Structure formats: structure tokens, C-alpha cells
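Whiteboard transcription, Tuesday session. T.W. wrote the C-alpha cells on the left side:
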């Protein structure tokens, strides 16, 4: 075999594809190998890609690969997944590569050498050799001292196994290898008949080792987690890896704890708040196979799994899976693609599945497993609507007397209330009583939100902050600024006034110092050290508080007028979720929804627990307008420092848009609702296309033909969820 004269290497930069390099001396690195390559004056990390190379640069001019890393190679399946994702999201593959390698290469301590079983038994088997192989099968790779200590054999036995080809050296992170492996049989649950049936179906699919997609559809508290943990156990028994994706970092602590109880060891956790050292440890552990179970945010999908046996997407309907910045993608959808490529089952779990997923069930692409009842005979909370026009709060307040009375009664019974308002801070808007001026962010089209605890006004989009001024910045009038509308801090103040004896706790992402503080807060609620919890969506899911029996939704209409195509769906899901916090123990729960629009379809459907009715109405409306999941949308977002220039580019795009494709049209350009974001002016176009159309194939030549000035950025968002 002759050595190749050029090697394609993908680097984490926005080139259209891999770049060609001359091979390094020695055996040519195989596709998937991590390498260092020169690029201009720099050296960057890349991955040897598939194919023969681009062939544009003459062989004599190619620069050689500078170094070959000894990290576990990127698997062929991961490379195919990356290529697919780049093509679908219309991003350069190098930009997608960033998601896969961002933790591979940083300055954490170097890995050490350990040993793993090769799967080949030695010709001569002795009890001591058997002991080592059994240990490696159960615990995964380990360092030589750790293996010898655990098995009590001599170093010669290990050396003999290596010479016989039964074990081989492997680079491991000592800390990852030292951790206990999850034990699928650590604490077996007693499942109900429904749970058992679903768990058996999932476990069978895991055993099958092929792609299967499931919707695990169960009301809040029906034991979805309990059920999918059996599928995880099945994958672990087969020595395969599992990843569980959650929509929010805040949920990882609670899930980690439940997994530890079931499997006797904590899973590896993956999210953006990890230290670089922890990131590298998990990345390497996943790559060498010593980490079998990962719980994390959407980015955990890009870890270097060697042999994925199952993917779980919990709360699959949650928009937290959607990434808008950089490479725009939906974590749930990409998880399904990765499952098809890895040939493993995927479980999407939800009490309020997305319309996208329900459409896939209807089309027969996903199998639906139903858990119709709450575990242990608990009943779903009764929901009542408070018509705020008939039972208004006192002037300057936001809680109806109907709600505060119910809270007082709940407290008198020694039970807990939860007030839900999806708005951080004290007040969403500050207004001058004298001149009517509203305090806006200088960088964004957004009001500054008052955070009274921190004595600041803050932008929730760019992070801009300023002290709360004494005088109006516009007219100079002193003490004229008034907060308008409530945030959770203001509701807490009101609770302190109407129920002074109540022990209160505000739960919002910015009032806590991270996942650990959140866990401490949850523990305090479980220990009944709190009477009234006032929280944002952070409290909506994943927790079980047996004494929580009343949920008050402060503003059930919030977001209804947003104009976003999924506004109704999102309110239905979030409200159902938060109402589902009540009455999960022996005491029945109830919920009160404060609304100014009790006749609105979504409010009536929530109150009646009528998911099917809501979904049917929503589906009909989406079908009528050709909206997702029955049609496709692609958002094109142009941004730049000069407003007029951005609009000019937008108009040029619209002028050259393809015209003769049935059902394909382009709306806009129009200034984005968030016309200014982080100091850049934004203009949007929206592409509508029929479901069956390969919309990327239509967009690619159109967008490639545009001459877009360097200062203007075009972001493509296929399947957009946020229309800011
Ligand atoms: P979901 O994910 O559907 O909201 P969970 O799995 O969190 O439901 O279960 C709700 C509560 O019921 C949890 O406290 C869980 O531990 C408990 N539970 C569910 N199924 C069982 C079971 N088979 N045995 C014991 N406890 C269960
Ligand atoms: Zn801002």
C-alpha cells in the first residue's frame, strides 16, 4: 500500500470543508485521529477526515501534519453525525467540530496509562488471570496499581495478560477511572404494571442494538424517570454507554441524586458550568469508555462516545434544548439523528409532548408508551381559574384575594404553596411618572429590569447593568421613577405583607449561586422549612415535594400575546408542568390560575386537563397555515453595526430569492422584534417551505450567491423556535 500524498484535516474554523495536509512521517494517521496542523502562523487542533482530500493545493506545496495526538480517535459514526449536522443546520463543518472538541484540548493534567480488556481470552487461563479479566469487565479500565490492589494478584499476572493480548494499555484520566461504575442491579425498583410494560419494551429495544425511537408519554409524577432508568440499566448490563439530556442545568443535581440511588454511583455530569479540569476528565472518560453514564445539557450529545447504547431526552418538549447562538440546532432533533447513526434506541420523555414529536408518533416513526396514572394513587391537582377582572388584587398588588386566602389556608394546614411567575427580578419596567420615559438598554431593544436586591437595573439579553437612578435620566425629575409590573422579588414582597408569618423562598436562576445552592433550596423545601416558594420556571419540573399542595400561577396569560407560533403550546406545557408540582404525595393538590382572559382556549384546556383537545386545536391551526410540524421554517438573521446597511443586504437577499418553487416563499426583510441586540442591528427574513422540500438544497445556492459585506453577519436558523 502506498502512503497517501495528502490528508484531509477538519479544523474548528469556518472553512467550507477539511483542508489538505501532507502526511507526517511514519504510518499515515487514520480518519478520526486528532492532529495538530499549521495554519498560517498558528498551530491548531484538527481531526483527520474521510476521503482523498480536496486536491486544490499542489502536493508539493502542502504543509505537513505537525503532530499526531494519542487521544482516542473520533469514531466514524461521530464523523458522520457531524457532517449531517453541518449540512442540516447549514453551518461550516469546522464550526460544528467546535462542539465536539471544545473540551478535548485544554490544560488539564495529563492522563495516565491504564489497562483495559481487549475481549480476547488468553490461551492459558488461570484463576488469577480470570480474576483480573472479571475485574476489568465489571469496573472498566484502571491503572495497574488500582487493578492489582482490587484483585490482589501480582504485577506479573497483568504483564502476562498484556503479552497474551488479553489486556492492552490505554490512556485514562486517573480520577475518572477511580470512580465507582454505576451498577445496573444496585437498587431494583418495584414497578407498577404500566411502568413494567413500558420498561420491558425499552429494555428489549436496547438489547436489540438497533435504532428505535420512543415517546414515553406520562402525566407528571407517573414515574417516567423510574421507567427509563430500567432502559439505562439494560444498556449498562451490555457494557454500552448512555447519555441523558436535560433541558436545564438546574435539573442535573436532582437527576444525579436519583441515578445515584438507583445505580449506587453518580453519573458523570456535563454542562457549561464545569471547570476545565472536570470537562477534560469527563471527555476523556467518555472517549476511553471508562465513563458509561452521562447526564447533561444538550452539549453532552457531542461527547466522544465509543459505543452508545441509549439516548434519553427528558422533558423533550422543552425549548431549553434549542440553541440559537452560533450553530443553531435543536438538541432533541440532533439526538434523534445521532441515535439513527449510532444505531441505538432513543427515549423522548414528557408529560406534554411537543407537536413535532406527536406528529412523528402519528406518522409511525416513533412508538408511544403511555403511563396514564400518577404513581402510588396520587391524583392530578384540581385546577381553578381566577378571573382577575372579578377578583382583582388591591391597588398596587398582583395577588388576588382568592389566591392569598388559599395560601393562608394551606399554611394553616401545615402545607406549602408555590407561586409561579416566569420573570426574574423586581419589576420588568421602570417608568418616569413625570415625563413617561421608560428606561431602556443602550445595546438592545429591551427594557431594563429592576433587581431591587442588587440595587440595579439589568438587561436580560446583554447583561448591561446600571445603578437604579434617583432622578429620571430623561427629564431629571427627582424620585419620579416607578417600577411597573411584577417579577418574583416583588411578589415576595407582597407575600411578606399579606402573610407576614410565612417563611418565604425566592427561586430564580439569578438568586442562587449555582446547582449546589439550588439543591440546598430544594432540600429546605423538602424539609418543610419553607411555607411559600416564589419561583420562575426553574421550579417547574423535576422535583417532588410531598407537602406542596397549592400552586398559584401569578400570570397565566404571560407570553400569550407574544405572536410566536408556539406561544400557546409553550404556555400549556409550562403551566401543566408547574401545576404538576402540587399534590404528588398523599395530600391532594390544587392549582389557581390568575388570568384576565379566562375564555382563552389554552387557559380552558389547562384547567380541564384537556391535553388532547388542546393539541387537536393547535394541530388544526398549524396545518391550516402550513406551520411546523406540517411545514418548514428557516429564519435568516442579518446583523451588523450599521442599521441601513443591514437592511440593504436584507432587501438584496429578498430580491434574489427563488420564486418558482411550489409552496416556497420568503417573508421580509423586517427589523427583528429585538431590532438591536448587544449593539448590533438586526433584520430578519423568514423562509416558509413545504415539509417534503429539501429546503437546504434550495437555500444553499441562493445564499452562496450573495455578496455579503464583511461587517454584516448572516445567521441561518433552520427550524427556529425564538423569533426575537
Ligand atoms: P415523572 O418523571 O413521570 O414526573 P418520577 O419518575 O419522577 O415521575 O416519579 C414521581 C415520583 O414517584 C418520584 O418520587 C418517584 O420516586 C416515585 N415513583 C414512581 N414510580 C415508582 C415506583 N415504581 N416505586 C417507587 N417510587 C416510584
Ligand atoms: Zn441589553
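and on the right, the sequence the group agreed on:
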Amino acid at each position: 500500500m502506498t502512503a497517501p500524498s495528502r490528508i484531509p484535516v477538519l479544523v474548528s474554523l469556518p472553512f467550507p470543508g477539511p483542508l489538505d495536509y501532507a502526511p507526517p512521517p511514519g504510518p499515515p494517521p487514520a480518519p478520526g485521529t486528532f492532529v495538530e496542523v499549521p495554519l498560517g502562523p498558528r498551530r491548531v487542533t484538527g481531526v483527520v477526515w474521510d476521503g482523498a482530500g480536496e486536491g486544490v493545493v499542489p502536493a508539493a506545496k502542502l504543509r505537513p501534519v505537525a503532530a499526531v495526538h494519542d487521544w482516542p480517535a473520533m469514531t466514524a459514526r461521530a464523523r458522520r453525525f457531524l457532517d449531517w449536522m453541518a449540512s442540516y443546520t447549514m453551518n461550516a463543518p469546522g464550526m460544528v467540530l467546535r462542539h465536539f472538541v471544545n473540551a478535548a484540548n485544554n490544560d488539564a493534567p495529563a492522563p495516565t496509562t491504564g489497562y483495559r480488556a481487549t475481549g480476547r481470552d488468553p490461551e492459558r487461563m488461570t484463576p488469577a488471570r480470570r480474576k483480573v479479566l472479571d475485574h476489568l469487565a465489571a469496573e472498566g479500565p484502571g491503572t495497574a496499581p488500582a487493578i492489582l490492589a482490587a484483585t490482589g494478584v501480582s504485577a506479573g499476572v497483568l504483564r502476562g495478560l498484556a503479552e497474551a493480548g488479553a489486556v492492552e494499555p490505554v490512556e485514562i484520566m486517573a480520577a475518572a477511572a477511580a470512580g465507582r461504575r454505576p451498577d445496573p442491579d444496585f437498587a431494583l425498583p418495584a414497578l407498577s404494571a404500566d411502568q413494567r410494560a413500558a420498561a420491558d419494551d425499552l429494555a428489549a429495544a436496547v438489547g436489540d442494538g438497533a435504532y428505535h425511537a420512543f415517546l414515553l408519554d406520562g402525566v407528571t409524577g407517573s414515574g417516567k424517570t423510574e421507567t427509563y432508568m430500567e432502559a439505562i440499566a439494560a444498556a449498562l448490563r451490555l457494557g454500552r454507554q448512555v447519555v441523558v439530556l436535560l433541558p436545564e442545568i438546574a435539573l442535573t443535581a436532582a437527576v444525579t441524586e436519583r441515578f445515584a440511588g438507583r445505580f449506587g454511583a453518580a453519573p458523570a455530569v456535563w454542562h457549561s458550568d464545569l471547570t476545565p479540569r472536570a470537562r477534560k476528565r469527563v471527555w476523556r472518560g467518555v472517549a476511553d469508555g471508562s465513563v458509561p453514564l452521562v447526564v447533561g445539557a444538550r452539549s453532552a450529545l457531542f461527547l466522544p462516545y465509543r459505543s452508545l447504547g441509549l439516548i434519553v431526552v427528558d422533558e423533550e418538549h422543552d425549548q431549553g434544548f434549542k440553541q440559537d447562538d452560533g450553530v443553531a440546532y435543536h438538541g432533541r432533533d440532533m439526538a434523534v439523528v445521532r441515535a439513527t447513526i449510532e444505531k441505538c434506541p432513543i427515549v423522548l420523555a414528557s408529560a406534554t409532548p411537543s407537536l413535532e414529536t406527536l406528529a412523528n408518533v402519528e406518522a409511525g416513526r416513533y412508538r408511544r408508551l403511555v403511563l396514564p396514572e400518577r404513581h402510588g394513587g396520587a391524583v392530578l391537582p384540581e385546577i381553578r381559574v381566577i378571573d382577575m377582572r372579578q377578583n382583582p388584587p388591591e391597588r398596587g398588588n398582583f395577588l388576588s384575594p382568592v389566591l392569598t386566602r388559599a395560601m393562608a389556608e394551606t399554611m394553616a394546614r401545615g402545607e406549602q404553596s408555590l407561586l409561579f411567575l416566569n420573570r426574574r427580578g423586581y419589576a420588568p419596567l421602570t417608568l418616569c411618572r413625570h415625563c413617561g420615559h421608560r428606561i431602556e438598554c443602550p445595546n438592545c431593544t429591551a427594557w431594563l429590569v429592576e433587581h431591587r436586591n442588587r440595587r440595579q437595573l439589568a438587561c436580560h439579553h446583554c447583561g448591561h447593568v446600571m445603578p437604579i437612578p434617583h432622578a429620571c435620566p430623561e427629564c431629571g425629575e427627582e424620585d419620579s421613577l416607578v417600577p411597573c409590573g411584577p417579577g418574583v422579588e416583588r411578589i415576595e414582597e407582597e407575600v411578606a405583607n399579606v402573610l407576614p408569618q410565612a417563611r418565604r423562598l425566592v427561586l430564580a436562576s439569578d438568586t442562587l449561586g449555582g446547582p449546589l445552592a439550588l439543591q440546598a433550596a430544594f432540600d429546605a423545601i423538602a424539609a418543610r422549612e419553607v411555607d411559600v416558594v416564589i419561583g420562575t420556571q426553574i421550579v417547574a419540573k423535576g422535583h417532588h415535594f410531598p407537602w406542596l399542595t397549592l400552586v398559584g400561577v401569578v400570570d397565566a396569560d404571560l407570553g400569550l400575546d407574544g405572536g410566536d407560533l408556539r406561544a400557546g403550546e409553550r404556555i400549556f406545557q409550562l403551566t401543566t408542568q408547574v401545576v404538576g408540582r402540587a399534590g404528588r404525595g398523599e395530600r391532594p393538590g390544587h392549582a389557581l390560575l390568575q388570568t384576565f382572559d379566562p375564555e382563552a382556549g389554552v387557559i380552558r384546556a389547562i384547567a380541564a386537563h384537556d391535553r388532547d383537545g388542546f393539541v387537536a386545536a393547535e394541530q388544526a391551526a398549524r396545518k391550516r397555515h402550513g406551520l411546523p410540524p406540517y411545514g418548514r421554517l428557516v429564519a435568516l438573521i442579518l446583523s451588523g453595526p450599521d442599521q441601513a446597511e443591514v437592511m440593504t443586504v436584507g432587501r438584496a437577499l429578498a430580491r434574489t430569492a427563488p420564486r418558482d418553487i411550489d409552496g416556497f416563499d420568503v417573508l421580509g426583510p423586517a427589523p427583528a422584534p429585538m431590532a438591536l441586540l448587544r449593539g448590533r442591528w438586526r433584520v430578519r427574513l423568514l423562509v416558509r417551505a413545504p415539509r417534503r422540500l429539501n429546503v437546504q438544497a434550495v437555500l444553499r445556492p441562493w445564499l452562496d450567491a450573495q455578496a455579503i459585506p464583511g461587517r454584516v453577519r448572516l445567521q441561518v436558523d433552520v427550524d427556529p423556535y425564538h423569533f426575537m
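Someone added at the bottom: The pocket of adenosine-5'-diphosphate (ligand 1) is lined by residues 189-192, 195, 218, 220-226, 375, 544 (CB under 6 Å).
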